[in-house]
Amino acid sequence: MIGIILLTCTLLYVIPRTSAAGMLLLTAYFGGAVATNVIAGNPLFSHVLFPVYFALLAWAGLALRNQRIIQFINNKN
After folding, report:
1. pLDDT category, 76, cuts 50, 70, 90?
2. How many domains does the chain divide into?
């Protein structure tokens, strides 16, 4: 079930029209991965923060594909 959820979020991220919604869902998914690693007591930089690194790379990819994301971050209309 977890794999199906990840696949669905990733497909939403890949489709240009739904990429922002897909990225928000992926961010929530990565947050759950961080929480799970914290509860499991895994090492901080190698396990706990890996989903954060991956989410930052995915957000950067979305920002490069969609200029509205950069405008939203900079609060420019």
Report:
1. low
2. 1
Q: Please, are residues 20 and 66 in contact by the beta-carbon 8 Å criterion?
A: yes
Q: What is the pTM of this model?
A: 0.82
User: At residue 22, what is the residue type?
Assistant: G
Residue 58 and residue 69: Cα distance in Å, rounded? 12
- Please report, for residues 11, 25, 35, 45, 68, the alpha-carbon distance to residue 76 in angstroms, rounded to integers and kept in the order given: 29, 24, 33, 34, 9
3-state secondary structure of 20: helix
Question: How many whole angstroms separate alpha carbon 30 and alpha carbon 53?
Answer: 10
Residue 18: domain span: 2-74
Cα distance between residue 65 and residue 43, in whole Å: 33
CB 51 within 8 A of CB 30: yes
